[in-house]
Amino acid sequence: MLIIQRLYIKEFLKVLLILTFGISAVFSIIGLIDKIDDFMPYKPSFNLLMLYTALSIPKYTNYLLPMSILLSSLFIFSQAIKRREIIAIKAATGKMKKVLIPFVIIGIILTSFAFLLGEIIVPTTSKKLHSIKNKIIKKERGLAFKEGTLYIRGKDGSIVRISLYLPDKNISKGVSIFKFDEEGLKERLDAETGLWKDNVWKLKDVTLYDIAKGQIRKIKEAVYPAIESPKIFQEDMWKVEEMTIIEMVKYKQRLDEAGFKNIKLLVDISSRLSYPLINLFMLLLGISLSLGGDFRGHWLLKLISSQKIKEGTLGSGIIAAGLGLLISLVYWFGYSLFLSLGYAGAISPLIAPWVVPIIFAVISVYLYSQIPE
Predict the structure, then answer these.
(1) Which of 48, 172, 292, 365 could form a cystine bridge with 194, CB 3.0-4.6 A?
(2) What is the pTM of this model?
(3) Model confidence over 181-212: pLDDT tens digits?
């Protein structure tokens, strides 16, 4: 590896780390400030608040990494253009793309890291974050949720198992309620479905097992007031960011078997795969825009070298930052728009999360291929 390659890689990684974790930390602190009014009545310890802030960082890192990569690449190579280093490199080596090969490898590594971040680290820290929040507000977690199965404690002390819960419809499939006394299990109630209606759970096609009397009864419909309102326990249910792809796929399979189509979940599964890829293409895009790409007039070089900002490096840094933010905003707007179209069913939920990444991929690869040697 050339000395100049090591220098650029070192500078790139340094700027990337500062931007990514610095901005993520700022957003985490802002998130804590937003929650502070809810937390302060419970007088949480300083360590608990700092732990809450630290656990928020991976989530923001996952969101901000593409923008940070773009900003870092634009900044590093715009500085190289300003110092006329790129001209010297071309004169010395003759092959600019050969010099850039390590950055392509770094882009692949960052993409892999982003996938692992979103698939392993973010779900784990999100669950812990939820647990810390409950600990701060001294809320007991009387709920367990996994792949659609829900376990909760009823207000009468009973244990309620819901085989498949549909949050969007407030419908429960396969409801089992276990009642206990001093001697053990006293009564078991199984219902085909449960529907939250008129502020109460209405169970249909109920089978009641009276263990003490040894009797079995069939009931067409029954009201069971001991189960909390969905608004209460939905707060403790896993969110998408707390689930891995495998967990989401298993949940979707259970929904399909029950005859329910969850388009939003399908979009989220597809987006979990498409989102990390943008990191590689943001890196290629930043390099291409800095080094010319298809813009043979080197418009960025002209801006950086203009008389107004010729002295110092602040001007070129501002231009790189402004350009990076603009491109990031365009990407986020387009990505969010197509996700919304996918959620609404206007376009295929499998395709929706891939449209904007593919567009950016085509543009970045084309511009990268056009970098003048």
Answers:
(1) 172
(2) 0.77
(3) 877 888 888 988 888 887 788 889 889 888 87
